[in-house]
């Protein structure tokens, strides 16, 4: 496993990071969740990402249990705040001082730790002054409850404003967590150039496009049993944007590229995001430990320029590149 600096900070994280969205506390049983975490640790993954909203707080609890007994200093634990949890009262959402200060304590309790390494704003909150949010994050850092602050799905302008305030307040906003894969490249034109200027790294989610880039979903064929596309607890709904014949057909055209590199399709997908030097980590999910074993082999792989071009040609116009898609992630109304 290779490790990369997170933004301009001194913190190093494993370039393949394990995340538990849709799996822990939901699609997979707790014993399998623990096996996946063990597989990650054995492979040299030190960085684990979750969020209070995953499985309505259950994912943090399962991860906390799975990591119990590990040397805390050898781990980087990341979580997030924004989306509503619990009874969805008027203050159970967003980036107000109240919600941040209360949420961090709940997350630490469930994760069984006194600090997280990275605390992330899960979305931008248009209904709370950014100054209020950043002051609350500054206080979380000063209280020792988080070492660094990050954000998720913020636009380039939102990142610029956040980093400037963080500097004024004396803490480090070091990361952005966007969706990024061979199929979803909306950060390339604006978020990545701004992040390079600001000393911010990307920690990218769904690098395998939720399993689609593993090539296991074949156009016109039955869905593989036990896959996310069959998960009625939430996964099937989340993956459906990619379950189109034009996308699945294009993905099959990547098979010879993966073969040429002696990689599986999932490994190719993870290696592809890591070719971007503004990416600090590929954030992988897994429903079974074998997937972790397979996917970590993407660490340290170089894809030659000629094959990067062939990937672009193979995928053609099913790749989403519109920078405005990041802005669409900012909720237009409050959740509660
Ligand atoms: P991936 O693109 O890595 O998809 C993971 C899923 O793909 C697995 O659960 C599995 O599903 C399937 N898969 C993985 N490896 C293989 C393989 N080798 N062969 C076949 N299928 C495979 O990422 P996720 O979508 O899970 O997201 C990863 C993490 O990113 C999350 O856990 C979370 O931490 C973060 N995230 C952040 C978001 C944000 O808003 N900030 C939003 C979403 C995710 P199955 O076996 O069930 O088909």
From TrEMBL:
Domain of life, per lineage: Bacteria
Protein name per its UniProtKB record: Aldo/keto reductase family protein
A Pfam family of this chain: Aldo_ket_red
Alphabetized InterPro entries for the sequence: K_chnl_volt-dep_bsu_KCNAB-rel, NAD(P)_OxRdtase_dom_sf, NADP_OxRdtase_dom
Segment forming the signal sequence: none
Family: Belongs to the shaker potassium channel beta subunit family.
Residue stretches making up the NADP-dependent oxidoreductase domain: 15-314
Keywords tagged on the record: NADP, Oxidoreductase
CDD domains, sorted: Aldo_ket_red_shaker-like (cd19074)
Matching PANTHER family: HYPERKINETIC, ISOFORM M (PTHR43150)
């Amino acid at each position: 496993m290779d490790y990369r600096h997170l933004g301009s900070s001194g913190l190093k994280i494993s370039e393949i990071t394990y995340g538990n969205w849709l799996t822990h506390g939901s699609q997979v049983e707790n014993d399998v969740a623990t096996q996946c975490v063990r597989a990650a640790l054995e492979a040299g993954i030190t960085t684990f990402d979750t969020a209070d909203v995953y499985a309505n707080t259950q994912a943090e609890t399962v991860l906390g249990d799975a990591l119990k007994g590990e040397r805390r200093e050898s781990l980087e634990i990341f979580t997030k705040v924004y989306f509503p949890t619990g009874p969805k009262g008027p203050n159970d959402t967003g980036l107000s001082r109240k919600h941040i200060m209360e949420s961090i304590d709940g997350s630490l309790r469930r994760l069984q730790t006194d600090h997280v390494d990275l605390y992330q704003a899960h979305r931008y909150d248009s209904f709370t002054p950014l100054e209020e949010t950043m002051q609350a994050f500054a206080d979380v850092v000063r209280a020792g409850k988080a070492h660094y602050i990050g954000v998720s799905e913020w636009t380039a302008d939102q990142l610029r404003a956040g980093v400037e305030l963080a500097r004024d307040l004396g803490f480090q906003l070091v990361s952005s967590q966007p969706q990024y894969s061979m199929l979803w490249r909306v950060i390339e034109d604006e978020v990545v150039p701004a992040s390079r200027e600001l000393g911010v790294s990307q920690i990218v989610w769904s690098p395998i496009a939720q399993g689609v880039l593993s090539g296991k979903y074949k156009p016109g064929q039955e869905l593989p049993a036990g896959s996310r596309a069959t998960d009625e607890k939430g996964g099937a709904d989340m993956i459906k944007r990619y379950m189109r014949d034009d996308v699945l057909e294009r993905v099959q055209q990547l098979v010879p590229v993966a073969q040429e590199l002696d990689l599986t399709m999932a490994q190719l997908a993870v290696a592809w995001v890591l070719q971007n030097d503004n990416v600090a980590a590929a954030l992988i999910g897994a429903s079974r430990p074998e997937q972790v074993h397979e996917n970590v082999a993407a660490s340290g792989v170089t894809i030659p320029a000629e094959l990067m071009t062939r990937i672009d040609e193979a995928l053609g116009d099913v790749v989403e590149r519109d920078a405005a898609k990041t802005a669409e992630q900012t909720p237009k109304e409050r959740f509660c």
